[in-house]
Write a structure and sequence with these properties.
The protein is an alpha+beta fold. Helices cover 47% and strands 29% of the residues.
Length: 245
């Protein structure tokens, strides 16, 4: 049956004029190409991604994007961790420096207490004088200590007086006559264990000093006074061999 139909169509095709046969042949060729292309597309879908490979490719792409996002997050976390570690190291270095300073202060204070262990409470540990070259002025350094157990911070003012001889008579120069206008109330102090205060004083011409007096006026407490011979207070003498912390 199919053979008969095919020969019938073949006989009709041969009976056509040559020009129409060429057109029919061209149309048939186009039809064959279209059919082959369509079959190729269908085959490609079925064979090109067998067993769900296309879906798997989509899943892998999504996983890759997720991994990239997680990697960026980990990089940011690492940067934050590095910054935190650097900050901690800096803080530790600062604490170490502070600890070393406290240790030096403790050693200095222990040396003060060892030298003058009989004293208790607020006191003057040492007085040191240094002349200012070619003038009647003197620089002084006073070391204050607070050795009372469980003592609060000491606050107040320090003043200096000098006893001596002027014009053949005994005379005393108080702080008001020794200091400049801005220090009339005295040199302020505030410390827990010890403190070194520095200042200067000027003696009038012809005045011969023989004793220096340091007076501490703490807030809410009685004044504390210490006197020392002028010669003993000169640099290189008593009470100035300790180094500052």
């Amino acid at each position: 049956m199919a053979s008969t139909i095919f020969h019938h169509w073949l006989d009709q095709f041969k009976a056509l004029p040559q020009s129409r046969r060429r057109k029919a042949s061209a149309g048939l060729a186009v039809l064959v190409i279209a059919v082959v292309f369509g079959l190729g597309m269908l085959f490609g879908r079925g064979v090109g991604f067998p067993n769900g490979l296309e879906a798997r490719a989509h899943r892998l792409a999504a996983q890759n994007a997720d991994l990239q996002s997680r990697n960026q997050s980990l990089v940011a976390q690492q940067q934050t961790a590095n910054t935190t570690v650097a900050s901690l190291k800096q803080a530790m270095a600062s604490r170490d420096a502070e600890l070393q300073t406290l240790k030096r202060e403790q050693a200095f204070y222990a040396k003060l207490i060892g030298i003058d262990g009989s004293r208790s409470g607020l006191g003057v540990h040492s007085i040191a004088l240094t002349p200012v070259a070619h003038t009647n002025a003197w620089n002084f350094t006073v070391t204050l200590v607070n050795t009372a157990e469980n003592a609060d911070a000491a606050r107040g003012n320090l003043t200096v007086a000098v006893d001596g001889v002027q014009g053949g008579k005994l005379a005393t120069l108080d702080w008001a006559s020794l200091s400049n206008a801005r220090d009339k109330a005295g040199i302020p102090f505030a410390f827990k264990f010890f403190q070194q205060l520095q200042g200067s004083l000027a003696l009038p011409r012809g005045f011969v000093p023989n004793r220096i007096t340091i007076t501490l006026s703490p807030e809410g407490g009685a004044p504390v006074t210490r006197q020392l011979a002028w010669g003993d207070a000169l640099a290189g003498r008593r009470g100035i061999t300790l180094g500052t912390p």
